[in-house]
Amino acid sequence: MYAATAPYQVHGKAVEAGYVPDKYCVFDRAGGTGALGYPHFNHAYDNSVDPAKPAALYYEDDGRGGKRLVGSSGWSTTATRS
Prior knowledge:
This protein is of the alpha+beta class.
């Protein structure tokens, strides 16, 4: 998975690739610790099963004024019925 998301380790490269940062950092109000970090979405990759094209990337502050990648995820927007 690390190799698949290597291009997104640099925050600016993810933005160049079409990942749009959310407006806020999701954190735990009770404990003050991170909960989700800074989510970035690229809806062109919704429904992607390719680990190199996740629909969402999650960043957190790196302590030096930048962001570091801490996770990725994909999801399906297609409803299925049985």
